[in-house]
């Protein structure tokens, strides 16, 4: 008996576009991420507002705004910081579509999933009772979920702007200059590199598998292969990453990050730093007031 | 200083249960061109990593430039910089060696770590890229290059340091004939007679061009040594170390014969009886 027949192959429709299994689609998505990361370096080399700033200013300024958005108890303050992030994206030539697809939609999906139960389980004033299930949506629950969503959207957008508009080596060097310990920076650098290695390995494994696949496998077989592949992928990428680290060591790497470009604070950098800090201070001041809670209390 | 660059004495190195190098002893002199031959898994790559101070032996000692090569030595920044400047390793898989966003950054990485002057780095990077005829690739991402181009960028990334010793791990592996020829030409010409080149390979076709002395490894030990001509003429050694194999083929008249086979295109005289 032909061993191929043991794999319960299904014939592939010739005209219908094959979408592939969930696993295959996930792997394809992972592969596309590699290309996106490369695209990110292209963005960092553009002549935009954030790109022109000294990396230290960007790190301090954007981190201050992230801190503001995290601590703010005022809904409108978070929206204001989010608006600043969008404005920064526009003047830095970051396509809003990229942000919407890569960040806002993903955050909405994942954080939304986490936040969803909160609207039911948070005790408080009842807003609506779900028919059949009898679950009660509370005003305090909705407030908490909205805060969580907005905070995550805002902080992730600001973080992404930092990474998209700054060469990765400059981010690492900037962190070192600002006193972040070398161990932390090395771990961060290697983690970033590890993601690349893992995606590259995943891509090769995926293509190798595709090249040997006739038709499509059933779901159970796909899951079995995927589980085995994930284990192999992790082992392979760990091995490759160790090799990369040795190649770095071989050329003199000892943990410190050096770049050809010298950081230099110019007039516009000082102005931008002042503006960032002023905005952060204002955000901190106004963010202390719990306006949405008052708004919710007033109207419901 | 003696003319011995590397002195390896009774070195054993293990990967968990697997012994990669087993009580290995050998010396390498200054300005020698050495080929380390051996089948897959014979310990060649591990040996190069020991010489580059990336691995350290479980037993035995390795000395480089009359100083012991130990983990402790590398804690000393001055020693580490001096060693890294003198010894460079080109990995078998160029992908592990290319981790910067552009080719220019890749080649500048080593000198930056060794804290050269930045203007000097820019000048030397441009020169090195031109020497290896890859100046046109300087703004490209190393990940998007062809295999031959990657190999040349990997070479450029270590040659910019103008090392005294060049360690090459399988330099011609997975290269097309043109790229392979370029790498071999480079190894023939690089540094004239003033450099030490240690090449790990199982490509017997290139050893007469790139080496004046060979070590043959098997199971982490030296199974033989000699000039390339001596090694290539020792059929028993080559067969016992799996560097060649008995090859059977048919001729047009239907006669089948077997002979030692070491590469795809070969000339041999024989009679069919």
Structure, described:
- The complex is a heterodimer of chains A (300) and B (273).
- Chain A has 300 residues and is mainly alpha-helical.
- Helices cover 71% and strands 2% of the residues of chain A.
- Chain A folds into two domains: 19-45 and 168-258, no CATH class; 53-166 and 262-288, no CATH class.
- Chain A has helices at residues 22-44, 49-52, 55-71, 75-91, 96-115, 118-121, 139-164, 168-177, 182-211, 219-250, 267-287, 291-299, and strands at 126-129, 136-138.
- Chain A is flat, with a radius of gyration of 24 Å.
- Chain B has helices at residues 44-51, 71-75, 77-86, 94-97, 103-113, 118-131, 147-159, 177-189, 207-210, 228-233, 235-240, and strands at 4-15, 18-29, 33-37, 59-64, 67-68, 87-90, 165-169, 196-201, 213-218, 221-226, 245-250, 256-261.
- In chain B, strands 6-7-8-3-9-10 form a six-stranded mixed beta sheet, with helices on both faces. In chain B, strands 2-1-4-5 form a four-stranded antiparallel beta sheet, with helices on one face. A two-stranded antiparallel sheet of chain B has the order 11-12.
């Amino acid at each position: 008996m032909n061993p191929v027949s043991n794999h319960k192959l299904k014939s592939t429709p010739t005209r219908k576009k094959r979408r592939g299994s969930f696993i295959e689609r996930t792997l394809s998505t992972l592969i596309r991420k590699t290309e996106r990361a490369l695209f990110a370096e292209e963005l960092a080399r553009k002549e935009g507002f954030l790109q022109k700033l000294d990396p230290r200013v960007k790190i301090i300024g954007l981190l201050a705004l992230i801190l503001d958005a995290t601590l703010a108890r005022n809904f409108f303050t978070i929206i204001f910081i989010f608006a600043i992030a969008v404005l920064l994206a526009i003047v830095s030539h970051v396509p809003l579509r990229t942000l919407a697809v890569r960040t806002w939609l993903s955050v909405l999906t994942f954080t939304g999933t986490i936040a969803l139960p909160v609207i039911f389980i948070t005790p408080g004033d009842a807003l609506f009772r779900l028919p059949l299930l009898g679950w009660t949506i509370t005003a305090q629950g909705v407030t908490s979920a909205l805060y969580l969503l907005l905070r995550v959207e805002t902080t992730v957008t600001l973080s992404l702007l930092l990474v998209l508009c700054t060469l990765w080596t400059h981010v690492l060097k900037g962190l070192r200059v600002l006193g972040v310990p070398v161990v932390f920076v090395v771990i961060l650098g290697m983690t970033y590199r590890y993601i690349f290695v893992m995606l590259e390995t995943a891509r090769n494994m995926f293509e190798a598998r595709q090249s040997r696949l006739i038709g499509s496998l059933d779901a159970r077989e796909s899951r079995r292969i995927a589980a085995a592949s994930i284990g192999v992928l992790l082992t392979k990428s760990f091995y490759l990453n160790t090799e990369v680290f040795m190649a770095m060591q071989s050329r003199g790497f000892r943990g410190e990050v050096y770049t050809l470009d010298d950081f230099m604070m110019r007039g516009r950098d000082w102005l931008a730093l002042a503006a960032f800090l002023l905005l952060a201070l204002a955000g901190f001041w106004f963010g202390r007031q719990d306006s949405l809670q008052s708004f919710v209390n007033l109207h419901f | 200083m003696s003319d011995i660059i590397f002195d390896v004495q009774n070195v054993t190195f293990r990967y968990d249960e697997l012994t990669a190098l087993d009580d290995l002893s050998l010396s390498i002199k200054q300005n020698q061109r050495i080929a380390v031959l051996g089948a897959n898994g014979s310990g060649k790559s591990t040996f190069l990593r020991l010489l580059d101070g990336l691995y350290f032996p479980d037993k035995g000692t390795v000395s480089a430039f009359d100083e012991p090569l130990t983990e402790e030595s590398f804690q000393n920044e001055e020693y580490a910089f001096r060693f890294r400047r003198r010894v460079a390793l080109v990995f078998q898989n160029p992908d592990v060696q290319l981790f910067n966003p552009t080719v220019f950054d890749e080649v500048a990485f080593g000198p930056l770590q060794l804290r050269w002057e930045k203007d000097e780095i820019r000048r030397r990077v441009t020169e090195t890229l031109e020497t290896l005829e890859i100046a046109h690739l300087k703004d490209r991402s190393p990940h998007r290059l062809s295999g031959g181009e990657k190999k040349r960028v990997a070479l450029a990334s270590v040659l910019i340091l103008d090392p005294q010793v060049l360690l090459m791990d399988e330099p011609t592996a997975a290269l097309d004939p043109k790229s392979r020829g370029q790498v071999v030409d480079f190894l023939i010409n690089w540094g004239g007679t003033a450099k030490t080149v240690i090449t790990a390979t199982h490509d017997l076709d290139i050893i007469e061009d790139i080496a004046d002395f060979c070590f043959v490894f098997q199971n982490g030990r030296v199974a033989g040594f000699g000039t390339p001509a001596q090694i290539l003429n020792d059929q028993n050694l080559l067969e016992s170390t799996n560097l060649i194999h008995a090859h059977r083929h048919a001729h047009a008249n239907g006669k089948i014969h077997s002979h030692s086979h070491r590469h795809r295109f070969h000339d041999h005289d024989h009679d069919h009886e």
